[in-house]
Design a protein that fits this description.
The chain is mainly α. The chain has one domain. 74% of the residues lie in helices and 0% in strands. The chain is globular.
Length: 308
């Protein structure tokens, strides 16, 4: 029987990679420091957010997947929201207070500061162009994450019974939204393509990966773990090649073209993440241990506060 902890430390490792990408990206934006042939990873490190959303969907649905497959008690909605609030709210409120004090000169006036702070006390500040990045640009991801929390219990209902079909529905919603952005020329407008509908398939991909991991955990007929390690390495290689392609588009055609390209191809990120998570979780020891190394797990543990 597989140890659930051994499987989930891989998700911690992937979260560690995600926060490393995001921090590296912001450090590159501030300093412009290049690291030779690997600098392209820093240039498109913003895609670490996509990996974050995938892992979030996984972690949120994992207890529900275990309840369905293993016959465990189903988590209550009240417990779900209490745990989310305990994790998100204290650090987020502290961040708002610090930013409001440090960046007070950025506000046009006292009423403007009041509007910005009040709007950021709800997850819906991303809806308004004036408040989307009014306090700190990266905070938009917290808004998207929290918006997904609000609809998660509703998505859970069909996902527990029809995971593949529900994921397909989420993918259709996300792709429809992204197609609409492309058709109207808004696919490179930051505040439009960074809204929840553009990411619901990534959250859903994480939920599907959680369900699949639990469903196959105790089945003896898994592929050879060395084969899974090779699959995982190949998928990592594909992800790095994709980052290289996006960075090349950024350099040659500009950031707007880069955003548009990502918008048009984001539909592939969810399936790649599913393949990465599952193949790495059951890969042969050395490769899996590399992905779940202690430094990455540590970064995973502090990822939320580090991001803020």
């Amino acid at each position: 029987m597989s140890n659930p902890g051994e499987r989930l430390d891989v998700l911690d490792g992937l979260r560690g990679i995600a926060i490393s990408l995001v921090v590296w990206y912001h450090a590159w934006l501030v300093t412009g420091t290049s690291l030779a042939f690997v600098n392209f990873i820093a240039e498109v490190g913003f895609l670490g957010v996509d990996l974050f959303f995938f892992i979030s969907g996984f972690c949120l649905f994992y207890p529900y997947a275990r309840a369905v497959v293993e016959g465990r008690p189903m988590p209550t909605t009240q417990r779900f929201f209490m745990r989310r609030a305990a994790k998100i709210v204290p650090s987020y409120l502290l961040t708002l207070i610090v930013f409001a004090a440090v960046y007070r000169d950025r506000f046009a006036s006292a009423p403007d500061a009041a509007v910005q702070l009040t709007s950021h006390l709800t997850p819906f500040f991303t809806f308004n162009l004036a408040t989307f990045g009014g306090i700190s640009g990266p905070l938009w991801t917290i808004g998207i994450e929290t918006q997904f929390y609000l609809i998660f219990p509703l998505i859970c209902v069909p996902f527990r019974k029809m995971p593949l079909l529900t994921y397909a529905g989420l993918a259709a919603i996300a792709e429809g939204y992204r197609w609409g952005l492309g058709a109207t020329g808004l696919d490179s407008t930051f505040s439009y393509f960074n809204q929840l509908p553009a990411y619901v398939d990534l959250f859903g991909a994480g939920m599907l990966a959680a369900y699949a991991l639990v469903a196959v955990r105790n089945r003896p007929a898994l592929p050879d773990r060395r084969v899974l390690a090779i699959v995982s390495i190949v998928l990592f290689g594909c992800a790095i090649a994709g980052l290289s392609e996006i960075a090349w588009i950024d350099r040659t055609a500009g950031i707007d073209a880069c955003y548009a390209w990502v918008n048009a191809h984001r539909v592939f990120i969810g399936p790649i993440c599913i393949g990465l998570a599952l193949s790495t979780a059951y890969a042969a020891g050395p490769w899996r241990r590399l992905i779940s190394a202690r430094p990455l797990v540590f970064l995973s543990m502090i990822s939320y506060n580090l991001y803020l």
